[in-house]
Write a structure and sequence with these properties.
By secondary structure, the protein is mainly α. Helix content is 63%, strand content 0%. About 8% of the residues have low confidence.
């Protein structure tokens, strides 16, 4: 991988299923901003580099100037890292909105403790899988909760 852009695209392929939109979302970078990085129009600022490094455990020297091993983890392992376990406000917001919309469209209500349990379960699921919030998953977990 000769260029910085090649190395960035390698990370997108590995951690974003080849989609810059998925990668940006997982890193917590606005998609429109990340698109400019992905298309080579600009380079990430220090805050965004920090988010990329935190999510992928990529060696910053390798990403920027191709020096050293690609990954920080012991032995330069290329295994996917555990996603940062820090609280992710945007993910929580998406989940709450998805739950409310799913319930509303079906004319259903949940008592606040049950709704809180559903949000917690979904938050853990999406945080651990890094998946995008979708209504099918909301429905599946809702049925498991009330069953």
């Amino acid at each position: 991988m000769d260029t910085y852009l090649d190395r960035l695209k390698f990370l997108v392929n590995r951690f974003g299923d080849g989609k810059y939109t998925v990668f940006a979302k997982k890193c917590g970078i606005p998609i429109s901003t990340f698109k400019t990085y992905y298309e080579g129009e600009s380079r990430p600022n220090s805050d965004h580099l920090e988010k990329i490094v935190s999510f992928t455990e990529v060696n910053l020297n390798w990403l920027l100037v191709a020096k050293g091993e690609p990954f920080i983890s012991e032995g330069g392992s290329a295994e996917k890292p555990q996603q940062d376990m820090a609280f992710r406000e945007e993910l929580l917001r998406e989940i709450i909105l998805a739950v409310e919309e799913w319930l509303s469209r079906r004319g259903l209500t949940l008592a606040p403790p049950q709704k809180a349990d559903l949000v917690i379960i979904l938050y853990r699921h999406f945080r651990e899988t890094g998946g995008l919030v979708d209504k099918d998953t909301v429905g599946r977990f809702f049925l498991q909760l009330v069953a």
